[in-house]
Amino acid sequence: MKIGIISIERDNVVNDIIESCKKLNVDYKLVNPENIAIGINMDFNIKYFKSSLLNIPIYFVRNLGYDNIFNFDILRYLENFSDIVNPPKGIEFAGNKFLTSMMLEKYNLPQPKTVVTSSISEAIYWIDCFEDVVIKPLIGCRGEGIIRIKKDMTITNKLEKLNKFKEKYKTFYIQEFIQPISNEYKDIRAFVIDDEVFAYYRIGGDNWKNNVSCGAKIEMCRINDELEDLAIKAKEALNLFYAGVDVIESKDGYKVLEVNATPSWEGLKKLNINISDILVKKMIRFSKC
């Protein structure tokens, strides 16, 4: 068995996958998509330097970068010959928060009230309607670019924040802010692989941003049937093999905040869960099906 690992950089996730492959006696090939060539009406299909990529049955996708459309097109082409984890369509849906919300709505999965617009006047209207909102870039991760605006802010302050955001990100993804049901800010990262769920709390405390990259504390979360079912359905709604599903507890029950198709797993490592071993084993079984 051989696994291809596609990434423009060798980060901690890639290193973990490599270590798991070594431990499980699985051959692997690290592939930087910047060095792939595809031949049309040529004597080769797809190669990495001088080596064909058609002899690898399954590929793990880590990081394609944000500024090279062709790197994503490579996955679409490679999918004709090999299994891809995660599939290109799933990465596309999860990589765009609007498309994520669209798919969650299609399958009637609970999520915060959300408005997407490029209009500053519309943004101000919905800020006032929701009274407290989080505005996110359509594309991004690790809490980067996210701002919070409240109705009681001055119009000057609102316009300053919105103009600065629009200049950089163009479009406003506006979600109602879900008030914490406890005395501290926290949400749940449910890490789903196939039909297995691992979950932990990300506790921001006084900081409403609960990302681990923003300093959130980690605490094991008990997985009940409702949380497990929601996490699996959210992953499947986006056509993913594995996913990081961000869930928040509200007075109305669980709501899905985001679905990540190429999640990191620092939180699980802090809880001594070797998720890369589990992922590699499940990828091998998936490829042999």
Automatic annotation (TrEMBL):
The Gene Ontology CC terms held by the record are: cytoplasm
Record keyword ATP-binding present: yes
Organism superkingdom: Archaea
Q: Which UniProt keywords apply?
A: ATP-binding, Metal-binding, Nucleotide-binding
Any one GO MF annotation of this record = metal ion binding
- InterPro entries, alphabetically? ATP-grasp, ATP-grasp_RimK-type, ATP_grasp_subdomain_1, Rp_bS6_RimK/Lys_biosynth_LsyX, THMPT_Glu_ligase
Annotated ranges, domain ATP-grasp = 101-288
Q: What is this protein called?
A: 30S ribosomal protein S6 modification protein RimK
